[in-house]
């Protein structure tokens, strides 16, 4: 299940900081917690995939702020939310409808529109474009100590860990041994560095790629995100050229 969430600003232009994913993460957890506290608590478990992801925050029109500290948005703001678990979607969307007033990074918005989007029937062989960059990390010994290392698409382990992550999501969704059928070819890649917590940085990749393989395995990535740290705002993709038809239209 995936949704387009359109937010109407209290004032224009509105600011969009470059490092804003944790604000969206806070909004998602807070609204889920209002509707389903037990679900919200279970999503804080560090040992299981969260099975949801979301895009970067966007604006109808935007420009670089004069002080280059972020972007200035004009018109409406919006972002996409996606999950493989209907219960998560029901709680988050229900929380937004229950209280449509939203504050993000000091800017105030009102939820103007929520659109539930159809999923493509076929994913294997399609071209995907990231709506939030893909993050893949491993541990490497650097200066004599094991440290977190951000992998790039130029390294074979990048694809190995993406498959491993997809298989883990598949197991949590289907409760059975996951398929191995998966191939991913990156067509273009652009790195972007984020501060995900004070002093903690993540290099992730805006990608255009083609993926082939088991449909359910690919759908786990399409709905819950490719790569890791999806609940922090990484790994959401769209199918290139796929028309976003609406399955329903909720207006606030």
Characteristics of this structure?
single chain, 252 residues, alpha+beta, 8-stranded antiparallel sheet, 4-stranded antiparallel sheet, 25% helix
Q: What does the model show?
A:
The longest helix has 19 residues, at 156-174. The protein contains five helices and 14 strands. The protein has helices at 21-35, 37-43, 86-98, 156-174, 215-224; strands at 2-9, 14-17, 52-54, 58-64, 70-83, 101-104, 107-117, 127-130, 137-142, 145-150, 182-197, 200-213, 237-239, 246-251. The protein is of the alpha+beta class. The model is unreliable at 245-252 (pLDDT under 50). A hairpin with a 2-residue loop joins β11 (182-197) and β12. The strands form three sheets. Strands 1, 2, 3, 4, 5, 6, 7 and 14 form an eight-stranded antiparallel β-sheet that branches. It has a four-stranded antiparallel β-sheet with strand order 11-12-8-13.
- Protein structure class: alpha+beta
Instruction: Bin the strand percentage.
Output: 35-45%
Categorize the overall geometry. globular
Tell me about the largest β-sheet. Answer: 8 strands, antiparallel
DSSP strand count: 14
Termini separation = 19 Å
- Tell me the number of helical segments per DSSP (H or I, 4 or more residues long): 5
Quaternary status of these chains?
single chain
Written as H for each helix and E for each strand, in order along the chain, the element string is EEHHEEEHEEEEEHEEHEE
Radius of gyration: 18 Å
Q: Which percent range fits the helix content?
A: 25-40%
* Overall mean confidence score, pLDDT: 92
Detail the poorly predicted runs: 245-252
